[in-house]
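Model the whole thing, not chain by chain.
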Amino acid sequence: MTFEKFVFYLFAAILVFAATMVITRRNPVHSALFLVLAFFSSAGIWLLAEAEFLAIVLILVYVGAVMVLFLFVVMMLDIDLATLRAGFIRYMPVGALVALVMAVEIFMVVGPANFGLDKVPAPVAQPAGYNNTEELGSVLYTVYMYPFEVAAVILLVGIIAAIGLTMRRRPETKYQNPSLQVRVKKADRLRVIKMDAED
Amino acid sequence: MDSLITFWEWLGTNLIVLQILIKIVVIVAPLMLCVAYFTYAERKLIGYMQVRIGPNRVGPKGWLQPIADAVKLMFKEIVIPTKANKVLFLIAPLLTLGPALAAWAVFPFSDGLVLADLNAGLLYILALTSIGVYGVIIAGWASNSKYAFLGAMRSAAQIVAYEIAMGFALVGVLVAAGSLNLGEIVRAQQSDAGIFGWFWLPLFPLFLIYFISGVAETNRAPFDVAEGESEIVAGFHVEYSGMPFAVFFLGEYANMILISALTALLFLGGWLSPLPASWVDGVFLLGDGIHWLFLKTAFAGFFFLWFRATFPRYRYDQIMRLGWKVFIPITIVWILVVGVMVVYRFAWFS
């Protein structure tokens, strides 16, 4: 076994283990943290495939930002496990059926028929000094310019939609206007009164 | 000496893991010493700023104070709250310290003096600094304490907000240098204008925003709402004692040194001499060298301490306003300005 193979199987084993833990742990915070571990191991596998830009961006975006917000929300939930598991037996057949259909679909798409060992040639190691970031950037901004921009616009629409859904006048909340606060002068707040000393 | 060099080369070809381990020790051991004496410098400097003397009992002028502190923390009892999540409670401090140390792997101390010369070095640093927040969040949650949890919530929102501004500031640097490699970024600042050729001048707004965001990222005053002694006792690490607390402490100071060193590297020319190269080339200590990097790092680090002695703590909503409504728009505008300057080969980029 070469070193690369060893590293691949190590990361792959951790990835599968972490992914299993994500769906089996009762505690949602533990699940979220195992998902972080899963991201880390997939980033490791991508590094092995010489896609260092994607690997680091996976950690930067998913671990550094998305999962932080996930944890943020999950930590504040007080999940009642009893009610959560109450309907387990009732919904089991439907759930199992959906899972089976999904598994078959996934197998048909990414199974050996399309992605078998004979279909994909073994990757050739890039020469030293190969810059994955530069490569991706030049392709992204020339060949895939329009899809890239369309994706950006879709994301922008998503942001605006999310803000539009949550922005509403809430007269009952107390709001401070910081610029007004900053502009306050001493004369607005403070009045010095001349008064005689009491005797 | 010659036999040592041969041995070193032999290690490089046969036992590369051992060679890398030695390099890691050579970086981390002085770093830990710097962290220890950074705490001493902080207490002394803030003492002088507040017309006190600061620690002066342990050893001459208090020089042994950090050692005494470390020994004290090592022998203290580790208290784990009964209802705490024990594993996560103990992992959290490591998650703060780990990334702060791992980031040094791609840090070029001088021309070619770097452990791992990564092409995507800047991205690597950004990714690792973004992981630091997990330590705080997990500590807050695993402690099972209201104060700790409040600190974690505050910190999570704050760090995510300032990370965006920080990332955009780094995008400016990347556009200006045309590379993600930290060594290349420093070499791009080399010119015959000396100090005026560094990126702090053309990227001045980004320089300020990067440093201020760095202060916010490390949860330092005036952005230390995650600790907020006067509001939530000590925030996320209120339940920690002994060595786990010490690890948090080390992580915070290691992060401060990292941010200072990165500011020196990205905006203040790293190991480059502030004097024009044609004047001082080859002159002892005035030419380029690692000592300039240390001086610049110390200069940036001093600001962390100065801020703490000077500014009162920000109010939480104003932190958010500053991050989202002031810093992010400014960085976006300045990235555009930098782009225009680079395209039209303006002064610094010709």
